[in-house]
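# nightly structure sweep
# worker-07 picked up a monomer target from the shared queue
# config: single-sequence mode, recycle default, output format = structure tokens
# input follows
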Amino acid sequence: MTEANRQDVARALGRLPSGCAILTARAEGRRTGILASWVQQAAFEPPMLSVALKKDRPIGDLIRRSGEFVVNVLGENPTAMFKHFGKGFSPEEDAFAGLSAREVACGIEIADQIARLSVKLRGSLDAGDHEVFVGEVVEASAGTELMPPYVHVRKNGLSY
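# output follows
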């Protein structure tokens, strides 16, 4: 790929809209949460979704060990969650300190979300510097009022 072509690819990929969610997982007494922007519905029947995670993220190990995770979908004003989860957490830190959160099927639900999806892992695949996890939604919650999710595009689709 030429440098000019790489810049075109970066701009074009950046135009793909994505949301932002708080992905949570727990295994063997450990639990954590991260900001995840590559979450997408993958099937209708059974209802499935995919999540792409950078390979060095400790949450990937928790997902592989437990075989499950939770996606907390963020609404239009995610500033508080960006500030909290944007700094990242070591595996020993409590990612939920200071937040209203509770244990649910497959992981942890945070209070500051517009929908929650509990997911059983069905498989994963190597995707370059990321790993894609695919799972079946086995439980979920969302209010009856349609709340718009946070959506963004980037200038450069080759980096966060």
